[in-house]
Specification:
alpha+beta; Jelly Rolls; binds 2-oxoglutaric acid; 9 helices; globular; binds fe (ii) ion; 10 strands; 3-stranded antiparallel sheet; about 290 residues
Length: about 290
Amino acid sequence: MKLQTLPPDCSVDEIVAAIGRDGGCIVRDVLSEDALAALDGDVTRLIEQTEAGTDEWAGTQTKRTGGLVARAPSSRPVVTHPLVLAAANTMLGGFCERIQLNLTQLISILPGQGGQPLHRDRFVWGGGGTSFDGAGAVPREVEPQFNTIWALTDFTEENGATVVAPGSQRWEFGGTAPEREPRPEELTQAVMSRGSALLYTGSVIHAGGQNRSDSARIGMNITYSLGWLRQEENQYLSCPPEVAKELEDPALTDLLGYTMGNFALGFCTSPDPADSPRSTTPERMLGRLVSP
Ligand SMILES: O=C(O)CCC(=O)C(=O)O
Ligand SMILES: [Fe+2]
């Protein structure tokens, strides 16, 4: 069974329907040539500077490069892509008042890298280690995460296009439910052209593919989560206040977490002895709101 591939002008409803059914879908050719060229500039440099992983999970023939909002300005409009954000808000909005950026990571799978262990990304919030369980502290019925992998090279069967088990987001898991490993015929690969995106939930079973080709497969993994969960990539360290306050798009600053998650979630106090120690909001601390 294959994932549905939607055209770049598809609607949010089409995306949500496809993900509801299969756990993921591809939207083809979303990024313009200009956006891709800008990304190439940042990405090539950053990947060159990155060492390969040290364990089976990260991949010893895989380079993972994070902190993209601060270090790759070309990633910023991708993080705030309107179609993706609308789909993420639709799928997660029932479980939180505000979604947040969860992770930014270039994943460059080098020739010779074997397949990554199959998993549900939601396992990070507990429940199953690197297994398929992943219900953990977040109730099974609550979808904590909305994920994207943007193809910066073509994704092919040979070079390690993401492996997905369509429909596995609906399989029983968590609590006492037995883990079920997908059978080979239940797996497909997100074969897509450069500039396309794989969109998928935190509950669908998937993995990075094996690279049997002679060149790298480069994807940009950008994920979002419910605003009341701990972010997988610590955005306050990866994009600290002095960088965040210079960002042009307030929507991006909000996504990083420099805003209130709801009326009481995420307030703060200035560490500067010259400032008042009264509790305040991230917006005020970053100088985005000047009133008291
Ligand atoms: O690189 C990929 O295609 C998927 C990687 C992945 O699933 C992960 O690192 O959690
Ligand atoms: Fe994953």
